[in-house]
Design goal:
This protein folds into 2 domains: 138 residues, no CATH class; 39 residues, no CATH class. The chain contains 5 helices and 9 strands, in the order E-H-H-E-E-E-E-E-H-E-H-E-E-H. Strands 2-1-6 form a 3-stranded antiparallel β-sheet. Strands 3-5 form a two-stranded parallel sheet. A two-stranded antiparallel ribbon has the order 4-7. GO terms for molecular function: ubiquitin protein ligase binding; ubiquitin-ubiquitin ligase activity. It comes from Sinosuthora webbiana.
Length: 204
């Protein structure tokens, strides 16, 4: 999951070539083993009136819940674009997204009628019984999914801590591991040589 700030968008419109790496910031990653749903939440999110009357983060039964990574003051605020990438699919399945919900609130600079309109739509949505799936309060990752072993859990926490502290240009965009032998592809993307070798072996 990557966010884009309006500033990045404006520089692109001015005729300056802007790459995804410059425009988007990686703020979340999920590895789904036996689940098909994931919920990302921002713990520092503070709803402004009139949205403070609502529950600001939802999780659904069977959903993996994770915090978004905070990578600076603008990484999780003033977002204008969202980029979602499916990097791996097990068992040769087709990658697809059946449903996507993005919950937030209008900017302070929006006209009052826009804010009221968004609030009205959100209130109507929450009042409906959507399918028989009722939202429930945000819960930790382990609550509704098949539990990881202690070692797997420890490794996952270490990986998340390490990834947050490493500049994005040093990470392989596919595996999110530190690149030991970076290679420039014809497309202009940079990946690790081991990733390319694994890809070639799987296609051979």
């Amino acid at each position: 999951t990557s966010w884009q700030s309006p500033e990045g968008q404006c520089s692109g419109l001015a005729g300056q070539p802007v790459s995804d790496k410059d425009t988007f910031t990686l703020v979340g990653k999920a590895v789904l083993k036996n689940q098909s749903k994931v919920t990302f939440g921002h713990r520092g999110f503070k709803p402004r009136p009139p949205f403070h009357q609502m529950e600001n983060v939802f999780s659904y039964p069977g959903s993996v819940s994770q915090d978004l990574w905070n990578k600076g003051p603008a990484s999780l605020s003033n977002v204008s674009h969202l980029k979602i990438c499916i990097t791996h699919v097990a068992g040769g399945g087709l990658p697809s997204i059946k449903r996507l919900e993005v919950w937030g609130q209008p900017a302070k600079s929006c006209p009052q009628e826009v804010i009221e309109g968004v609030f009205q739509v959100a209130s109507q949505f929450l009042a409906q019984d959507v399918g028989s799936v009722k939202p429930e309060p945000w819960t930790p990752m382990e609550s509704d999914c098949v539990p990881f072993s202690a070692n797997e859990q420890q490794t996952l926490h270490k990986l998340v801590d390490v990834v947050q502290d490493i500049p994005e240009e040093f990470l392989d965009p596919i595996t999110l591991e530190i690149m030991t032998l970076p290679m420039l592809l014809p497309s202009g993307k940079v990946i690790d040589q081991t990733t390319l070798e694994k890809c070639n072996r799987s296609e051979a």
